[in-house]
Amino acid sequence: MRAVRILDTPEALGEAVAAEIAARLTGRFLLGCPGGRSPKPVYAALAWMDLDLSGLVIVMMDDYLTEVGGVLTHVDAAAHYSCRRFARDDIQAVLNAGRPKAHQIPDANVWFPDPANSATYDQRIAAAGGIDYFLLASGAGDGHVAFNPVGSDANSQTRIVDLAEQTRRDNLATFPDFRNLDAVPRHGVTVGIATIAAARASGMVVWGADKRRAYTHLSAATGYNPAWPATVWAACPDATLYADRAAAGESP
Predict the structure, then answer these.
(1) Directed axis angle between helix 10-24 and helix 40-47, to 10°?
(2) What CA–CA distance (Å, rounded) separates 57 from 54?
(3) How many beta carbons lie within 10 A of that of residue 166, not counting itself?
(4) Is the whole model's pTM more than 0.90, yes or no?
């Protein structure tokens, strides 16, 4: 089942997606999560809900890598662009704030792909029963999803990738503290297209006028198109595209 919902504002979009997640949330629940600005209205809306999140597992999509001694490894967890920092500060801390300790997301329930053995991430997810809901976002310039570049195979799983130049340019806006393009890492570890498509349900969020091109590609998708990887949302068995009016090109 695929659906498209257009909301008036990013805040209304966040509330709609959060309500969808909350309605599904029960017991141990694996939530695939991106970093960056797109999902923030969703996390903000979830934070206000009276929910027991002790069984929620945050399955992060990706992280930037740096080379140390000839080996690619996670960037410093304190770096402004670190997805580990984002998960800690902008997801876990936001959702746990003001919530009883017994209802908070424990540290052990925040997962990241391991660049030293990336294949184990899909195995870990499968062993836990699979991702219940994948929250997705699309690159504005090239349609990357997580760090999957244009041309990513539909059967791809978690792996290390070279970041496309357009993806790196998109991330100048995602993480505005980058000084210039040279400061953006050139490698990342990312879940694959097949990792995302295997989720029981997904919600693709696009908002803001800069995502209008993304919305055009995503709303026309009937399945996965490697020319715009974020179209994977349409390959999920139960998927909704959420956009605000600015992204959809509609007047308020």
Answers:
(1) 60
(2) 8
(3) 16
(4) yes
